Amino acid sequence: MSATQSERVRSRAALPLGPFGDLASYVALFVRSVRANFAYRQAVLTSLLAAGISYSIPLLVWRHVYAASPHAPPIPAAQLFAYLLLGGCLNFALGMSVEFRVGQRIRTGMIATDLLKPIDFQVAQLSQALSDALFNVLLCGPIWFVGLVTLRGEILPASTGSLLASLLSIVLAFVIMFSISFVFVQAAFFTNSGYGIFAARSALQQTFSGLSAPLALFPWWMRATSEWLPFRHTIHTPIAIYLGWVSGGEVARLLALQLGWAVLLFLLGRVILAAAFRRLEIQGG
Amino acid sequence: MEWIKLYFVAYRTALQAKLEYRADFWVGMLTSVLLQLAALSFLVVIFKNAPSLNGWTGTEVVFLFGMTAAALGTSELFFNHIWMLPQYVVSGELDRLLTYPVHSLPFFLITRPELHSFGNLVTGSLLVTGSLIQLGAPLVAWLLVPLWIVCGSITYTSALVVFGCLSFRLLGPYSHHLMVPHNLLQATRYPLGIYPGWLAYLLVLVVPFGAFHYLPGGFVLGKSLAWWTVLAPPLAAGWGLVVANYVWQRGLEFYESTGS
Asked: Theoretical Cys-Cys bridge with A210: which of A236, B81, B120, B124, CB 3.0 to 4.6 Å?
């Protein structure tokens, strides 16, 4: 390495970069993550199969409920199935490997090498999570098309405005989902097994996101609880906007709530990470 | 009988090592209970909108829920190591196992119990006990339920082994393919009659998770299923053992170890 290069590396290491200080590094990470996803495409396909089974179960249960008593649920069957299919697609698209990736690095001590890099750890994980999400969106395309064939107009956005607002809502849902996972995964600094971290987040997500049913079908106490948690903004809010179940001022209110949760959880992740790094001890040599 | 002692010592040592992590134990307990409650919350939503599912009342479906959770918990407590297989194949860590003078599959399965299994086991047992009391189940049901749970855990583990062996061909550290049988097990938390015929048959005959609780449970709970369905759990478990052992042996033939 030449003297100039060496000095440049030293100066980069010495200067603490801001969260988005070196965009090129995060873009490079993003590109490599996309390549890694394509390298493990068999894993992604089996993941899609497993997710398909998981999302089909509530769909088939609801199908039976509507067949047995068509007028019992307060939402028409076609609307409910469109909601469930879109919810399943969105949940799969937001299924990033943050817990697996970060948890493994914490447990094995590989996080030490991440700390040597002159990039922000949280934003680096965000760029990798973005590559996961975009790759998953590609896989969801055919499923959305199947929905279009079977459910026809029901699966289309209510209007152009709904589509645009829902796209913004999905971006915010991505940041919320990433930030929730990032907060939860830091429990790996304190526990040995990664299961608890994943399971706790997954349980809350399953219950309160509206993944298996729109919140309107929930008992009042579950609906009221979900109002106070961020999970509904990962699935229910974007889909409700897309399908036109909410409009006008209510859309703006929901987007503002999503933005608030996204900022709050992202900052919470930073605070916890800083505290965890202060007590982090990695042995070896 | 020396080999039984060897297996027992290996299991006990692995369990003791796990129990060293007290925080993990409580986190695992709490979160597995949370996951079961999350699944039950969906049941609450469904029964808010429908009086029954294919003739099964809420309490009867809770029985299926409990049986599934208990079988899952038993599998996680005794045979959980299969979830690590994809990583071991990639890193070559199976080498050590293959040098031991033991039958590799059962020894491998028992040497990594998971602490969150207790949460699933406790939740499942409570749900089964509560539902049987409320349903006024006959004595024979109380006597057979523990056997069905053991058979269910063997059937489920066998399916995990079969799918896990795909790791010998589809190289990668991920264990997504193991989620396929896991999610199929979750499908049997509901009466199989609600599913399309092909799926119901798949869950009884091919991946026979419905055989350990839906079929025999349906008989003892008076769902007009034939008496011989009480024999289905051990038959499914035996079938699972044979298939899993065969696929494991074939899978090992593709194991390439790793270089240094």
From this structure: A236
Residue B248: the pLDDT is 96
The first and second tokens of residue B48, run together, are 């808010």
Q: How far apart are CA B81 and CA B7, in angstroms?
A: 14
Instruction: Say whether A54 and B179 touch across the interface (CB within 8 A).
Output: yes
Verify whether the Cβ–Cβ distance A191 to B186 is below 8 Å: no
pLDDT at residue A12 tops 50: no
| Closest-CA residue to A93 (of A177, A186, A24) | A177
A200: nearest CB among B34, B45, B180: B34
**8 A C-beta contact, residue A206 and residue B34:** no
| Residues of chain A contacting residue B51, judged by C-beta atoms under 8 Å apart | 69
**Mean pLDDT of the region B205-218:** 93
**CB proximity A65 to B under 8 Å:** yes
The pLDDT score that the predictor gives to residue B125 is 95
Tell me if A212 and B170 make a contact (CB, 8 A cut-off): no
Residues of A in contact with B40 (CB under 8 A): none
Q: Do A43 and B34 touch (CB under 8 A)?
A: no
Write the pLDDT tens digit of every residue in A220-271: 888 899 999 999 999 999 999 999 999 889 999 999 999 999 999 999 999 9
List of chain B residues whose C-beta atoms are within 8 Å of the C-beta of residue A65: 46, 49-50, 53
The mean pLDDT of B192-215, rounded to a whole number, is 94
What is the secondary structure of A211-272 as a DSSP string? Answer: SSS-GGGS-HHHHHHHHTSSGGGTTHHHHHHHTTSS-THHHHHHHHHHHHHHHHHHHHHHHH
What number is the ipTM of this complex? Answer: 0.89
With 60 as the cut, is the pLDDT of residue A61 above it? yes
What are the DSSP calls for B131-155, one per residue?
HHHHHT--HHHHHHHHHHHHHHHHH
**Cβ contacts (< 8 Å) between A192 and chain B: which residues?**
21, 24
Considering only CA atoms, give the Rg of chain B: 19
> How many Cβ pairs closer than 8 A exist between chain A and B?
136
C-beta atoms of A202 and B38 within 8 A: yes
The pLDDT > 70 percentage for chain B reads: 98
